[in-house]
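Changelog-linked ticket: glycine example.
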Amino acid sequence: MPPSLNPAVMEQLKNGSAPQRDDQRMVEQALARALAAVDRNLAHFGDQFPAPSSVGGVYPAMGNDEWTNGFWTGMLWLAYEASGAPRYREAAERHVLSFHRRQAERHNVNHHDLGFLYSLSCVSAYKLTGSAVAAGAAMGAARLLLERYQPRAGIIQAWGDLNDPEQAGRMIIDCNLNLPLLYWASAYSGDPAFRDAANRHIEAAARHIVRADGSTFHTFYFDPASGAPRHGKTHQGHADDSCWARGQAWGISGFPLVYRHNGDTRLLALSKVLANYYLNRLPEDGICYWDLIFTSGEEERDSSAAAIAACGLLELSNNLPLLDPLRDDYQRAALRTVRQLSEHYQGDEIPGGGLLRHAVYHKPHGVGIDESCIWGDYFYLEALLRLSRSWTSYW
Ligand code: GLY
């Protein structure tokens, strides 16, 4: 039975709603502090990139080699939008050339994370500056992503070589955020193939990744030959039948982002179900544990999942009809999350340090536990932009 929002959670959200002026001040102060961190890290990393997660609170520097590099470039574009300062744009435009090379040379692009990489670095650049180089790079990335589409199962294969039988037919919830690149590519090129693949994939995610109780599998296998659904399995969560918090956050945010491209209102209903499950399982301070099976105790929080969920709740709320009874609750839940993050989860003010601490990258593999994660920083900054102005999404 899909969850409704727990009345106690609703009450808590109403009680916690602060006067508007106080919210604005909180957002402005948090934004100023976030921009100072971006400045520190721009000086620290130069034209290199922060690694996916910090080590001892500081991100190691790396080249344009990971699935996560777009988050830092996206932060530079957000900083440029927030401030108008040319230094952010100049650095981001140098990154665009690097992203152009990366897809042209097929360097570490054998995975589905091309949307994370190219929506934030190059679709953003195209939308903000009209750059033809950025549009060309984003189209190249979209073509690579489309190569991963498996028509029988109707999904984009997440990881691994397309001939690898271990990985064939595996979709993951994170891919919801990679689909906007495909919709953008159809709109830009006029070729419906990208959009058609994205529509099939989101349908499969809705049917098989979302469980009846409103929680989600992290990953789901199909038989690539027949297209028949097989079974769900976790990769970064606690157990196959638990609910990895970041996966749930990718779902809360990804379904309404895709709705904006394809207009399918069922995706908004689904995002509500996921949001209710998520909100009903938050601890006192409103920042989730790394897996939603935990609601109290010593396990680590995942501030990055909370930041993603905050953006998802804002996207969901903004797309719901004005009279939807939960519209304001989702807005308040997002604001409360951002306030908690800004007051209790901000990173140390050191070169190479993250905007947010207390995130988890991959607990089962022992990577990035209780560290900063670069996507958490990106979504925290995106949430601050969403709350401080009328912002046009890069997704
Ligand atoms: N998309 C990979 C992760 O969220 O860790």
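Closing comment: Example verified and attached. The CA atoms of residues 246 and 305 lie 5 Å apart. The chain has a mean pLDDT of 96.
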